Amino acid sequence: MEQIASSLPRDYPALRDLLLARYEALPSQLKIIAQHLIDHPNQAAFMTIVALSNATGVQPSAFIRFSKAIGFKGFSDIQTILRSNLSQRRETYAERVARSAEDADALPPLMRFTQLANMSINAVANDITDDQIATAVELFRNARLLHVVGHRRSWPVAAYFAYIAAGFGAETHLFSPAGAMVETNVSLIKPQDVMLAISFPEYSTATLAFVEQAQRENVPVVAITNSRVAPVARAASVVFEVDQETTGGFRSAAGAMALAQILAVSYGEAAGGL
Hints:
By secondary structure, this protein is an alpha/beta fold. It is built from 13 helices and seven strands. Helix 8 packs across helix 13 (254-270), helix 9 packs across helix 13 (254-270) and helix 10 packs parallel to helix 13 (254-270). The relative contact order is 0.12.
């Protein structure tokens, strides 16, 4: 294999930064590949192009176009970087390999969904850092008003966070999922505020509309979502990626609920509420 050009990334964090920087300019099919590498780097490290094609629904030839579009000679150069990342994430990778060795859909619901919930919570412990938590908490503490928005399956997470944070004295405004009084709700967003936005596929257009309004008011956004390139994440100040996995068509909310509790309790501890 030829040597990768010195200007190209040599480790996964640098590769991820490159993919995020180039994402918006990529054609739609290549965006799908970029998101898969951002969201599932460990699985992609050893999959063949045919297997990746099946997983993403993108033609195998697109992986060659993708590699050249971001400056590499071939996809094998990208996989070399992905594989080098595994030594730093050995526990998470081992868990995922063990899970993939079983036919999860053949398990009874009790085992199927407790496995998914455990994996979701383990991912929070493995992938989210204390620095991310601290940055989000500092934004919350300095806010005049903490707006919380999450529609559809994100609503329980949003309501849970708002309930705990308000108990610690945070001035919170929870956007109703019913959509009533939208203009009045939007008018409450001011430059001294902060917004916590929670959104998962299928992404809520209402949630995104509130996030875009927050950005127009220069209000920092903390996002809880499944991907760094999800709509609510692209301009967020802090992004928490949780609950990426599904089983039987259902996405676990366990990681997001645990993270909501962690953020709210961390806020309470920092504010002297505990």
